[in-house]
Amino acid sequence: MPVKRNSRPWLGFFVGLILGIALAIIFQQAGWWPLDQLLLFGMMGVFGLVGILVGGAGRASVRFIVVLIPLLLAIAGVAYGAVGIPDATGNGELKGGCKVTSITPLDSTIVTDTSASDPFDVAPDGPLSWTADSPVVFMDHLWNIYVEVGGFKVRIAGNDVPEPNEDGETHNEGNVASVSGYVQDVTYRTGDELRGVFVVSGDITGGATCSGFGFVRLVDDPFASLLAKVALGLAILMIIILIIIFIRRSYMAEVAVDTAVVVAAADGGSLDGVEGVDQAVDEAVDDAIEGYEPGSEDLPGTDDLV
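and the corresponding structure tokens:
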């Protein structure tokens, strides 16, 4: 008769979920990839699956209903992240015939030449200048600017009352001496300390419509921001927890088998046909895992079996 040891996947799932979020933030803050739908939900789903597998280490059997919900949640995260692949692997775009050029001391762009792997570089406290041209005159127009976090747009600027264009201009240009004020404002509005790579999108409507998005990177030390430091600490902690879960469950599984052998020997027989061994082993493993302290000579929960 095989020894049955039920899996507890929820702990592994949540630890993996937190690890995935932390790693996604590190990737974004370091300037390696924007915190988009693909990265955020893909990381959450993949490491959620890893956590479920680690949580079941050393278990000979798993009740399917126990693992079903966390498994479905993890798979859903991977699937939702995969939906964002086309946007993540393409270039920036402009629709409606508008043209935009932006320049900093580090880089220049026309928006459509940016991508997640080749974003427009801006210093966090450096200058920025731009020019914009439209194919039509936007007379009384509305405009919006967004920063995308995890595939969701967060509006950071715009107008709610139509602005007039009394001169009928189709050309606009401007510059700022430092983008630090915008960086602080976006950080406050999104809750994401603005560093690394992110997606900026916008639209303008007034008789016609222009819209588009591009990839921007605030160039800085990979772990200069508090958010990056916190994410790094969380990632290390979650990795350590997963390792501990794996080691303890594997070790306790061996203890459970040895305990079952002792019980069978004491009863003068073998594991096969020994009534109550499975349940006793299950309870011993669960109690041992919950009560075991590293360095302790005793294994809680097994005294009643020997």
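(Above: one complete record from the training split.) The chain is about 45% helix and 20% strand.
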